[in-house]
Structures are given as C-alpha cells and as structure tokens.
Amino acid sequence: MQPLDLQVIEQALSWAADGHPVWLCTVLSTYGSAPRSPGAMLVARGDGAHVGSLSGGCVEEEFLEGLARGGFPAPAQVVRYGETEDERQRLELPCGGSLQVLVERRAATADWIEHLTTLRYTLLGQHRRVRHVDLSSGALALGADQGGEAARLLGERVEIRIGPMLRLLLAGVSPVARVCASFAVELGCEVIVCDPREDKQGVLAAGVPVRPVMPSEFIAEGGCHDTTAVVALTHDPRIDDLAMMEAVRTPAFYIGAMGSQRTSERRAERLRRIGGLSDADIARIRMPIGLNLGSKTPAEIALAVMADVLRVYRGKSRDEL
Question: What CATH superfamily is the domain 167-320?
Fold first, then answer.
C-alpha cells in the first residue's frame, strides 16, 4: 500500500509530465479538532480531478468549488478555513476546528517537474528534507531537515518537512508481532519483518511477507532510516539482542524490545557486557517496550507498542497523553 503523500506527489508528477498545471495543497496548522495533521497534502487539476486529503471531506469540497470558480491564481498563498462560527458550521468542521492550508498553483515547467521528482525520491529514500516556499514570489527550495514541526508559517515563508513513510521493522515473528503488523498496515506504515527461523516463514499478517534473514543483518545493511521504528517482540535473545546492538548504530527514531522489567534489566546487562553498548546506547532502547496500559494479551500488547511508536513519531511526551 502506498502512503497517501507518495500517491499525491506521484499524481502531481504524472499530471505535470502531461503538461497540466496543478494546485498542491498542504495543511500548515490546525486548531481544535481536525481529521488530518499538518503536512497532509492534496493535489488537484483545474477540472476538479484530485488525489489526497486535507480534512474529512468538507474542506476539500470547499477548495474544489473555489477552484472551479477560478480561485487560487497565485503561485503560493495561505488559505484559512473555519475561522468563523458560520464557516465552521457550513463546513461541518468538528469541535470548533479550523485549519490553514498552503495552496500552490504550479505550471508544468521543467523546474516544477524536477522539484516533484526530488520529493518523490525523498519519500522513497532514507532522509527527510524541508521544502521552503516563498509566499511573495512562489519561489521553491529544498534543504536538509534539522528537525522541528511538520509545517510552519514564518512570515512570508513556509517550511514543510517531507520524508520517508514510517517504517516498522519487526525483528522476529511472534503473536504480538502479527498484531503489530496488522495495526501498522492499517496505519499506512511500511512493514518489514525479518526472521531466519524455518518455521516462521510465509506471510505474517495483512499480506506482509517474512524475510528469511536475521534482523541484525538487515539493519546492518542499511535497513533503517530516521523514520524507522525497530521493534523486537520474540523473547529470543539471539534475535532481539543482536537487533538492538545494530539498531542503536542507526538513526532509527524508535528502538524497543519486549519483556518485563526484570527481563529488560538482564537484557541491558547482556548488551553492555557482550555487545559493548554504552549507557547512552542502552538509553535509546525502550525496555520494557510500549505504553503501560496493563496489557496482557498479544492484541493489547501490540496496541501499547504501536501507540508508543506513534507517540514518539508525533513528538508527544508521556505527560501529554
């Protein structure tokens, strides 16, 4: 399954290659309750054909109606939806929600096609980048991502972070891993499962195949980027420990291993003694893994794991929950 961002960029690239001007919309900020988060995108043609989403459908309809009336002629502009009570009721935005959307009108130029091509490679690649859009001129630039909010408005300039889809790397097959894979697929993640054991081969869940290799080998060969979560859920030290030893050498944003507090303490000691990991390395590993929901069953544990992965990915502290 393709992430929605990649579908939007690939459709924009296809239309531009055919000579169509396109309107690329990106959610910059939301207030109150909003179905999509900052960074969500939609691309449209002048005839109303579109791919992507900005909200639950109400804002998209409003935008497309405005486009049909000849609106949004500027190369780049910020449009606000749901600022008044009447508009919130008309758009059916929930709980007093409102949002700001960057709307870019881009002709099918060579520079625009090159920009879209770079965005596509970024989404399929290993590193995040930042789009810089000048609202006064419409000028575009791409730079390295140094971290920060998904999208923000800085006076007459907009910054939008874009990068690979969230990758869930499951180190080994287990009942909890099966449910995690199902959850992750529904969440739109790229799911990779590695397990060399002969009795664990086949399809894990939701059409995700098991790769017959050690997770540590896959990681060592460049299997992690900065939007990768490495999750070990087997209770087998030969798989879990080796995966942790390699994962801490990567930019993975989340590294975790399943086990009780006592099991986690023993694992930390093994990783120090055998793996040579430092205290800083150990601190990167979430042991025990997941939110403390009192989980008992595989499904409950998987829910706690995936909720914690998303918490960290969204930059939320435990105190904010």
Answer: NAD(P)-binding Rossmann-like Domain (3.40.50.720)
pTM for this predicted structure: 0.72
* Parallel/antiparallel/unpaired status of strands 157-162 and 151-154: antiparallel
CA distance 164 to 188: 12
- C-alpha 102/C-alpha 16 separation (Å) is 19
CB-based contact 258:232 (threshold 8 Å): yes
Do residues 148 and 48 touch, judged by C-beta distance below 8 A?
no
- The answer to whether 116 and 93 have CB atoms below 8 angstroms apart is no
CA–CA dist 166, 173 (Å, integer): 20
The rounded Cα 270 to chain-centroid distance in angstroms is 32
Domain assignments of the chain as residue spans, ordered by start: 4-162, 167-320
Which of 111, 118, 58 has its CA nearest to residue 89? 58
Residue-wise burial string across 152-186, b where 16 or more C-beta atoms lie within 10 A, e elsewhere: eeeeeebbbbbbbbbbbbbbbbbebbbbbbbbbbe
pLDDT by residue for the chain (321 residues), tens only, comes to: 357 888 999 999 999 999 999 999 999 988 765 567 788 899 999 999 999 998 867 788 889 999 999 999 999 999 998 766 555 555 555 545 678 999 999 999 999 999 999 999 988 877 789 999 999 999 999 998 877 778 889 999 999 999 888 899 999 999 999 999 999 998 888 899 999 999 999 998 888 999 999 999 999 999 999 889 999 999 899 999 999 999 999 999 999 999 999 999 999 999 999 999 999 999 999 999 999 999 999 999 999 999 999 999 877 888 777
For 175-229, give the secondary structure using H, E and C. HHHHHHHHHHHHCCCEEEEECCCHHHCCEEECCEEEECCCHHHHHHCCCCCCCEE
